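Hey L., structure's done. Input below.
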Amino acid sequence: MNEEFLQLKRGALTKVHQIIPMAKVQSVTTNQGPLMRKYGLYSVSVGTMGSSHEIPALPEEVALALRHQIASYARINEVDE
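Output:
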């Protein structure tokens, strides 16, 4: 990740490599279901105009820092509830 692009790689059998321009990022969210809550993990979802990309199973500190950094690079204002 840098100020211009977010690079995602995944897959064991079928490898997928995605490059997402920060200018296209519209939203960044953290998600935690019941199973992930049990282990203290979060996933980070990055929403663009046409799709959503997920970074799964991150520790809480890493997920929140990553969400903040992506939002900062994409110039998205965070709102605390």
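The beta strands are 5-10, 16-21, 25-31, 41-48, 52-59. The two ends are 27 Å apart (CA to CA).

-- N.
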